[in-house]
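note to self — DONT lose this again. spent like an hour looking for the file last time. sequence + predicted structure for the chain T wanted, 171 res
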Amino acid sequence: MPQYLVCNYLPDYFDPATVTEAMMEEIHALNRELIAAGVRKFACGISPARNPKTLQKEPDGKVLVTDGPYTETKEHMGGFRILEAADLDEALAWAKKAAIACDVPGDVRELFSTRLRNKDRRKQVNNLATAASEHAPQGRNERTAATVPLIRYEGKNNEIHLFGVLRQGQI
């Protein structure tokens, strides 16, 4: 099932003292509802935008670390949730509830690595699983039934690679 980033944005001038007990209870109630529905994988608020460090790769390969956000904006991410939903419509339904509870704008984005995008990718994973089972240890002329391929996504296009095989008894 695909996963989605649901984030909230706060204005630069946001004052945490303006958050009421009633608003906090609405947020907690939404989190309890998300957990009960089995869609929430992670949720948190984050520190104000005046506190971050920005990292940027330099031409020589080193990484420059500076104070504050690299881009200038009038609002910054104030918190986020990772939701596992059947589709974008379900994620949007939950995000609407978050927009109401938090009383701030936000957006929803699907996480790239959570779903195989097409039949070719599924076929590639199935082929890797078959290859993994072929490398299972032989014992009494039988293959071990519990063989799991360990698959890694790499590169800009998330190419699928088999990097190992987990066999029964290795856990």
